[in-house]
Amino acid sequence: MTRHNAFATSMVLALAIVPILSAKSASATTYQLSVTLAGTSSGTVVSTPAGISCGSTCSASFAAGTVVTLKATAKTGAFFAGWSGACKGIGNCKLTMNSNLSATATFNVSQTVKVLNHIIFIAQENRSLDHYFGALRAYWRLNKFSDISFDGLPQFNPTSGAAPLYGPAPSNPGCDPAYPVPDDCTVDSSSPQITSYHLITQCVENPSPSWNESHADWNRADPLLATPTLDGYVWTAGHDSRNMSPRFYDTDGKRVMGYYDWTDLNYYYFMASEFATSDRWFSPVMSRTGPNREYLISSTSQGDAYPLGSDSQDQSLLTATTIFQELEAAGISWKIYVNTQNTACASNPTPQCLLTLSYVENFQWGQTIPSTYPQNITTMTQYFNDLKNDTLPQVAIIEPASAAGLDEHGSDSDQYPINIQLGAKYVSSLIDALMTSTSWKDSAFILTFDEFGGFYDHVAPKPAQSPDGISPQDLMTNDICTQGTGPTCNFTYTGYRVPMIVVSPYAKKHFVSHTVRDMTAILKLIEERFQLTPLTKRDAAQKSMDEFFNFNTPPWVTPPTPPVQNTSGPCYLNSLP
After folding, report:
1. In the chain, what are the domains?
2. Distance CA 219, CA 228 (A)
3. What is the mean pLDDT of the chain?
């Protein structure tokens, strides 16, 4: 065959095929899309282009090649659990109609805080948010976490993106070198500025977070003013160091401007980034440990601005109702776990001895625990056994391991340095044991700190609800708030910001709350879960902690694998940084 004849023959064949293809196309111009609704609740599914609108029309025909988008919307009290069939995932579904297709939309009843069957919490000691987590956004950049808003130290913020953005490292006026020891710390126009810096030592001398010092931190020149200047941190630490006997090494108070980062607290930085945290979480009171822990147990200190027994005005045990009393009355299981290491209770772990290691001993009702509820106060060995034996109570507090030097408190004595890395490793053992236990599936572990410890934080305390209308009853003769009145001279302000992390299979991934709360929000969470009456007006006023959780689709059914907490950092008290 000549080339001309071959070409002609191929053209004839091609022309003969065209009508056949056209006929096939004309006979299949539309395809059917069917949607089925499933699950324990209901919702609606609509299509774009229009055609499907379940629960009225759950199937429609579309022209071949049409791109159809299905949108599922759950009814009130339900949630969309996801697609199956031709659609996958939980978002809008896009389908190209090149064949008949079917998809199922599942709607389930919304889950609530009631899915939490175990709430465990621990408050470590005396650290501010900037001091511990101020460098969090820099950690995110290095470790490929998405950048979201977190109000830490401004020098670690990015130059663009979510506010707040980059700013200079903050500072506080220091002690004028013209007035060295034994003179008191003097702040004047000649004072140097002490700028935020990275601490190398994992042990620092303890600043004071007490009532007077907290108020001087608020506004050094006039603590009674309504305007916080947050410029008294260095002065209060220097003043206290110079008036101690024996004096601390850091008589200029420079330690309070120091911070730690992910190289020091690698476990905490990992957990705060993977799970849920907050940049507006405050201690309840502008004072030291005692009153804040009383709030943590009963949502009030009943007028105590100082630890119980500090003076003649606070000798009586508190009569306030504790959260444990409410739990007991409601038939909810509870326990107080205490660490007996380096205490007399190590060889004598009786309920009577263990009570002395718990802050519930400050309450009249607490004195009844050894005789009436002896099984409810126990050792840390029992905590780990309860995890192994699936006998974890519904609510548990873990008291700080202070005598063991594992509470992360500042060092009260240069002879006995407290290493924060050892404390963080101890906490990691508590959380890791929960994450690998059978109780993980329905638990929440809340880590926080009882107060700021006198360390710098750039966010001022916030207005708060007085728990019971009781004013401070135990102020000392020369206290700031005995010299006049001011907005922070009552229990109508929180304390300073402290770190917190919510660890749970239901905790949102890489989430930061910006809602103002204090630690009594933990009590609010317990009350909401177990339908208990608020203890005081303070916990009643707290915002629900629901925003920390995704109860419908738990993000951490399989928990992450955290790093081992570093313990190799140097520990010294005779120099800075």
Report:
1. 19-110 (2.60.40), 115-548 (3.40.720.10)
2. 5
3. 93
